Amino acid sequence: MKKFSSLLHNLILTPSRNTKIKLLQDYFNILDINRAYALAILSDQLSFQFIKASKLRELVYEQVDQHLFDYSYDYVGDLAETISLIWPTKKEGKSQNLSTLIENIKKIKKSEINTEFSKILSELSNNERWTLIKICTGGLRIGVSERLVKTALADLYNKSVNEIEEIWHGLEFPYENLFQWLKNETSKPKIDFKKLFHPMMLANPIDEGKDFKRLDANEFQAEYKWDGIRVQLMVSSKSVSLYSRTGDNISSAFPEIIEATKGDAVIDGELLVGRNFKPSGFNDLQQRLNRKKASKDLQNKFPVFIRAYDILFYKGKDLRKFSLLERRKYLEKFQKENKSNQIDLSSIINFSTWKELTKYKNNFHDDLNEGVMIKLKNSEYLPGRKKGYWYKWKKNPKLVDAILMYAQRGHGKRSSYYSDFTFGVWKESELVPIGKAYSGYTDKELLVLDKFIRNNTINKFGPVREVKKEIILEVAFDDVFPSTRHKSGVAMRFPRIHRIRWDKPVNEVLTISEFKKEFKLS
Amino acid sequence: MDFINHQLFIKDINVHIDPILPKKTAIITHGHADHARFGHDHVIATRQTIDIMKIRYGDKCAKKFTPLRYGQKYSIKNYDFTLYPAGHILGSAQVLIEKNNNRLVITGDYKVGKDETCKNFKLVKCDTLITEATFGLPIFQHPDPKDEIQKLIRSVKINKNNCHIVGAYALGKAQRVMNLLRQQKYNETIYIHGSLEKLCQYYSKEKINIGKFEKVSSKDKNFYEGKIIIAPPSALKDRWSRRFPNPIICMASGWMTVKQRAKQQGIELPLVISDHSDWNELLDTIKKSKAKNILITHGQEDALVYYCKKQNLVSKPLSIQGRSDEEIE
Hints:
The complex is a heterodimer of chains A (522) and B (329). By secondary structure, chain A is an alpha+beta fold. Chain A is built from 20 helices and 21 strands. In chain A, strands 3, 4, 5, 6, 7, 8 and 9 form a seven-stranded mixed beta sheet that branches. In chain A, strands 13, 14, 15, 16, 17, 18 and 21 form a seven-stranded antiparallel beta sheet that branches. The longest helix of chain A is centred in the middle third of the chain and has 14 residues. Chain A is globular and about 70 Å long. Helix content of chain B is 23%, strand content 26%. In chain B, helix 2 packs across helix 3. The interface between A and B is medium-sized, with 29 and 27 residues.
């Protein structure tokens, strides 16, 4: 555990990618079972059933005063770090192996968690405690992506990272077949591709200034970008399953898709809510998300379908090395053979110059697409976010000027800065909050805002500071919906700070009724 | 408390403690720039604080200076002032103010732990305690500075082709780091940023063991491989630091307790070495002072105010202008 926790400590503090790879390789070079645990942790595949963030809070409140913990958490902005620092240190116990420690924790009965897990935390050093809590809460956020871990492994054993990527989702702890193959002791692990989630091909945002000058419009095809969730649908005669972008099986949440789909293929597409293949907005889709099951009632109210845009396998044939144009033919063939109420095809936009495409991108009559996707016609299906193949070009965001009302400290990389901003518009002589944003500003703007907040606080509500109503923020957002949960009656989708409007006086900001009118909410 | 206001001003006799703007009479607790300023008529402080002010701002930074020894009483009308060691940096002092059997202590910045670069903190009993709260959260529990300095020494041994640049405040922290290195038998020359030179010379003159040091000069780049360089934190991000071979950026500060803070500042080797009291030392000082009335100046005051109230002590924060709540040390 000591070794692994100092690995994480060093990884989080090392800015250099090469040094990170070196640190990882030094660790993976240890030839024992611990590296399998490390790999599972670094790729976020290990978790404890009973120990999640809420349980950890419960445990820490047993040890320290709740208010003192909350003040500290507000300052640190990271749960694992706050708990590890504030936990009363007892005498450090004998240092345990990462693997032994994890197996011991897995053995703890649910009824004994509070005493047993607290005891373990008390016997660890600060840094080990931090590591263990990070493992429990998942998502390490130490500046190491899964891809980087795979790269470190691939480089260490002279393999290509794509080879690892291809079999990754078919591997299981303790990855013996992976390590044996890496060391050339066996051949590449055989994975049943039909059962396997395939990492998705992702797009990069287009840089209008640079990319359009160097890219030839004729080599690309365009489709609308739909505001749903990305899914992979695996169909065979035996089973149908649906996976999210991160490889989670979400079949049980969308039974109508599972029941209606036939054929033998792996399809890539967007899951949307709507009737007769007419999408009805992200707000409706949200009713179907984060649910394990969907009742008949919910299925009727918010029916879902898949807008397919790619195909990875067709009747057992791997199409990923084929070009996009060829894959599209297979996709159309699949669609023809397996007519279904649940799948339609993403239509292709005809255009010959980038300028011509602009009008499709900004198609403001249709609020339901977010812009366009631009895909290289002869691109293979490549996992990850490779540059030069697929681009996304988003509509210009909607903009509104609003007044900064409250601020809170941020988390993670922005911890200790006042970086979460609540802003509002007028309702008679008062302000009513319309949203909250914690991104979009430059580092410089953040410093200015942070300083303003510290010097202009008029009220504190726990961690929240109310500030003088002097700063106008131009807020960009993707969409806005009516909402009964918010006082203002509106809910924004993905609001972010576009810039600070130093030039505008606060009394020129819209009223809530003007705001609703402008964005067609009333 | 009724004779002193939230700006640490005694109106009755027109005396300020650590004022930000030029004033008639100023009692200065120590030489850091957020406490000692240029342009007062009359400065009352320890001899070493006065020396440091003169080094930083020139001999004429005040019209008149009155040096006080620790424990020496100085009276203005019916107010008696006595300075006691604060253990923060060389010359740092707490101020005891007595009036009609009422005792008030202003700690200034202080730490309780041992430090060879200054006189160690002396606890002064009082009725009202005005304490700092830089590290006023229970997450701050400073480790033994010797262990921290060992981390640096170990890293220097392992990474022979790198140089280590340690960010440390020019006054106090820099010399403390040097002294700690000497205590741990690191006997090589320590290289310093030019802005540290005069203060290091002064510490040497005051017989503080900081060992052999030399200003960084435009020597051959590779000369600094394997060396330790000490620089003010502002220089770490500056072009200045790019001249060195494969630098490992270190920082000596109590803030380094929090990994996320270290990461934000691009620090690869955080050294938790603080010249302020940690949480337990703050609580201990409050308790042992026997004060019933606790006022809290700059820092993370919320948690400490909450704690004092729970102990049935009267407590409130003072917000003194010009003290940012975080970047001081």
